[in-house]
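Appendix B, record 7
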Amino acid sequence: MAAVREKQMTPETLGNGVYDPSNFRHFAPEEATVVLMYGQDPDVGVVVWNLEPGQENSTHTHPDSAHVITVLAGSGEYLKDGSPVPIKAGECLIVPRGVVHGLRNTGGERLSYLAVTNVSPSGYTRTPTGGGHA
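Structure tokens (predicted):
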């Protein structure tokens, strides 16, 4: 996963707080990219994931935090507990803490999604599960 950091906002640089998540869509042919949209907040983090056809955010868990994911563009599969669930633009996924999950672009177009997560007292934690396919 490649991280793009140049536009990340913080509580101090948030401005009026109104932003178009499509401005945070940056793709790379080598691997999925994650754009850090909003961070350094003790309560919440916001990122935009961007996947070319065939790319994925491999399966993992967050033992200390939950996610809400909104598919911005494209289609693919939500890999929930190892089972693929079809997803498409406009849909919202709710991922409780500890649930094994990942997303894969199985469509012919670019897939982007906005992920909002709470931040636990131990910070942002991500545990790979070894599942999924690149």
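Remarks on this record: Residues 2-128 form a domain with the Jelly Rolls fold (CATH 2.60.120.10). The chain has no helices and eleven strands.
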